[in-house]
From TrEMBL:
The keyword NAD applies. GO terms for cellular component: cytoplasm. GO terms for molecular function: NAD+ binding; UDP-glucuronate decarboxylase activity. Pfam families: Epimerase. One of its GO terms (biological process) is D-xylose metabolic process. Transmembrane segments: none annotated. Its cofactor is NAD(+). Residues 29-273 form the NAD-dependent epimerase/dehydratase domain. This is NAD-dependent epimerase/dehydratase family protein. Keywords: Decarboxylase, Lyase, NAD. It comes from Mucilaginibacter terrenus.
Length: 351
């Protein structure tokens, strides 16, 4: 059987979530954002586990262009999968029965956020409102909202790992605030629907990730550096390399998301990410060391923020303590597996 994702990763996902799947047997799930990086991993894992455990579960995937997607990714043709053509803000409630929703729609693309912030804000807010109305209409058991660490705004340099109890926020006057502020409003809508209608919405505040099929032309330094490495280009650091980031492997991400959906507390937010921090300069060096050919690392700015570097690193103690989750794949392995995938595959996610 050919799978879209590495089979060893699918086996690990199943092994670490096996106790959850009886809750899904015979049930139906709606996934928005099913054609993005998150969605592909969620869908690939669902297909594998549904077959392995014979769950007889159904997954509906909302997409603006399902035919185009399936022509590119035929691995997602499966009897348990139904694609629905539509927009997250206004698609019709055609389901006879619906048990769970994973709302993973909305592009965090920096260009969209900067060029048309009103569009991204409206899509996040109105899309979430539409999903919650569907959940109310169908009496859905649980909704997972994939939110973002962007809801915290700029992480103070004095805070090494930001937690769910840190009440920071985006600067609403900043040009790039629409995405983070939209996610804050989406979370608030979830709380309103829980308080008024009892909709059990769980919130996953997602940080940064890596793994097979990560778009390499996106906003994450790790993806950009891997693109440089597999194309034997110099690795370019736009800034001075001092900011700290962390990256969770995609298979770990799926384990965490399904655990929060099926076992998380309603009306609660959980940080989703790795707490293994690394600065951008060291990340470039790590990728360079693992590349087949040693490359030049070009740092565009003179080091000036070494004493007070910016940070985007979560504390994940809540997920660990409440849900028994952990970072299963360390950063070295994450980078190696991502690099190896792109060395041995041809895929349109590279461009």
């Amino acid at each position: 059987m050919k799978y879209y994702l590495p089979e060893e990763d699918l086996q690990q996902i199943l092994a670490r979530t096996r106790n959850l799947w009886p809750l899904v047997a015979g049930k139906s799930i709606l996934l928005t954002g099913g054609t993005g990086f998150f969605g592909k991993w969620i869908t690939g894992a669902f297909i594998y586990i549904n077959r392995e455990l014979r769950l007889n579960a159904k997954l509906y995937i909302l997409s603006r262009q399902p035919d185009k997607f399936l022509s590119t990714y035929p691995e997602f043709e499966d009897d348990a999968i139904t694609f629905i053509k539509g927009d997250v803000t206004n698609f019709g409630f055609i389901f006879e029965k619906l048990d769970f929703i994973i709302h993973a729609a909305t592009d965090a693309n920096t260009a969209i956020n900067n060029d048309n912030p009103a569009l991204i804000f409206d899509t996040i807010v109105e899309g979430t409102r539409h999903i919650l109305e569907l959940a109310k209409d169908k009496k859905v058991k649980s909704v997972l909202l994939t939110s973002s660490g962007a809801v915290y705004g700029t992480q103070p340099v004095s805070v090494t790992h930001i937690s769910e109890d840190d009440f920071f926020a985006p600067d609403v006057l900043a040009s790039n605030a629409a995405y983070g502020e939209g996610k804050r409003v989406a979370e608030m809508l979830c709380a309103m629907y829980y308080q008024r209608y009892g909709i059990e919405c769980k919130i996953a505040r997602c940080f940064a990730f890596a793994g097979p099929h990560l778009p390499l032309n996106g906003r994450y330094a790790l993806g950009n550096f891997i693109f440089n490495a597999i194309n034997n280009q110099k690795i370019t650091i736009v800034g001075d390399g001092s900011p700290y980031r962390s990256y969770l492997y995609a298979a770990d991400l799926v384990i965490w998301l399904f655990t929060v959906l099926l076992n998380g507390r309603p009306n609660q937010a959980y940080n989703i990410g790795s707490d293994e921090e690394i600065n951008i300069l060291d990340l470039a060096g790590k990728i360079n060391n693992l590349a087949e050919k040693k490359l030049q690392v070009d740092v565009k700015q003179v080091a000036r923020n070494r004493d007070m570097p910016s940070r985007y690193v979560p504390s994940v103690e809540k997920a660990k303590n409440e849900l028994g989750l952990k970072v299963y794949t360390d950063l070295d392995t994450t980078v190696k597996k991502t690099l190896e995938f792109y060395r041995t595959t041809t895929t349109n996610t590279i461009a």
